[in-house]
Amino acid sequence: MRILIVTHVVRKNDGQGRVNYEIVQAALAAGHSVTLLAAEAAPELVAHPRVRFVQIARSRLPSRLVQYQMFAWRCGAWIRAHRGEFDIVHVNGFIAWARADVNAAHFVHDGWYRCGFYPFRLLRSFYHAYQVIYTLLNIGCEKWAFRHAEVIVPVSQKVASEVGALGIGAKRMEVIHNGVDVGEFTPGAPERARFGLPQAPFMLLFAGDLRMSRKNLDTVLHALVHTPANVHLAVAGILHNSPYPALVQALGLSDRVHFTDMVMDMPALMRSVDAFVFPSRYEPMGLVLLEALSAGLPVITVRTAGGAEVITSGSGIVLDDPNDASALAAAVVRLASDPDYARCLGETARRVAATLSWQAMAERYLNVYEQVHARRHARELPAGCATASVKP
Question: Where in the numbering of this chain does the Glycosyltransferase subfamily 4-like N-terminal domain appear (predicted)?
Answer without folding.
Answer: 14-182
